[in-house]
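Fold it.
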Amino acid sequence: MLDKEVWELAKRFGDMFKIDRYIVFGLIMTESAGNEKADSGYARGLMQVSKIALEDIKHETLINYDYDDLFKPEVGVLCGVAYLNKLLKYWVKYFDGEYYLAMSFAILSYAWGIGHVRKWLEGTADNKYIDESVPPEKKYYNESVMFWGNYARRFLNAQNKN
């Protein structure tokens, strides 16, 4: 998909769930580079939603799509943002309402899984080893999301103003 098309989906579903549209765009680009047919073998679609995440949100929402539906851009983004919203709510509660800290952990949980993030956060006894506890491919995930969000803010949002 073109960046502009991905941006429109990020705005639509970010606004629907009251989640920063730039973060949604950043997640899409980090997860799939805007390829709605992306399939890692474990997750699929623009936001690389896994079967487990899909089942998880189906139990808590009115969303009732099948795994194959995730290749449809609107469905993939809807499901991905619904899952991010679930993670964000968990971390907001965990951090007593600290939204920005919670968002950072929600983004990392989206990539690595909430169980891994909790184990890392609660189980690293010596802070000098905390960095080594995160897999290399997950260490810079949040930075990638922020990079793409900044790209949307600077270029795609600016194009809409002209």
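The chain has a mean pLDDT of 92.
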